[in-house]
Amino acid sequence: MNAVTWIAMAMISAGALLTTYRLVVGPSIADRVVATDLLLTLLTCGAGVLAFATGQGVYLGAMVVVAILGFLGTTLVARFIEGRGA
Predict the structure, then answer these.
(1) What DSSP state is assigned to residue 26?
(2) Which of 25, 47, 59, 74 is the most exposed, fewest CB within 10 Å of its CB?
(3) Confidence at 86, pLDDT banded by 50, 70, 90
(4) Distance in angstroms between the alpha carbons of the first and the last residue of the chain
(5) Is 9 exposed, middle or buried (0-12, 13-18, 19+ CB in 10 A)?
(6) CA nearest to 1, candidates 46, 51, 53, 48
(7) What CA–CA distance (Å, rounded) separates 71 from 43?
(8) Rounded CA gap, 65 and 62, in Å?
(9) C-beta of residue 10 within 8 angstroms of C-beta of residue 37
(10) What pLDDT was estimated at residue 25?
């Protein structure tokens, strides 16, 4: 892997650490849901960087699955919060 890949992974890792902080500290459930969605998005971006760096398409399938699960999870929790009136 070249230097650009390392820089991209370092930036994604820094974002994941900050997002994990918001996930743990977040005062409301909505903050935690948004942090979880962002964490899954960063995971998808990391898999994309690895797919590009290694030239293997195996990571692309994982990216699709993580993106779909993240979207569905966020949608379900948002509907739950909306129905609860919180």
Answers:
(1) -
(2) 25
(3) low
(4) 46
(5) middle
(6) 53
(7) 13
(8) 5
(9) no
(10) 92
Q: Which two tokens stand for residue 50?
A: 């690895």
Chain centre to alpha carbon of residue 8: 15
Two structure tokens written together for 33? 């849901």
Structure tokens at 51: 């797919």
**Tokens at residue 18, please?**
């900050």
The residue count of the chain comes to: 86
pLDDT for residue 39: 93
Farthest CA pair distance, the chain: 49
User: For residue 66, which of 84, 85, 39 has the smallest C-alpha distance?
Assistant: 39
Q: Which two tokens stand for residue 62?
A: 């994982």
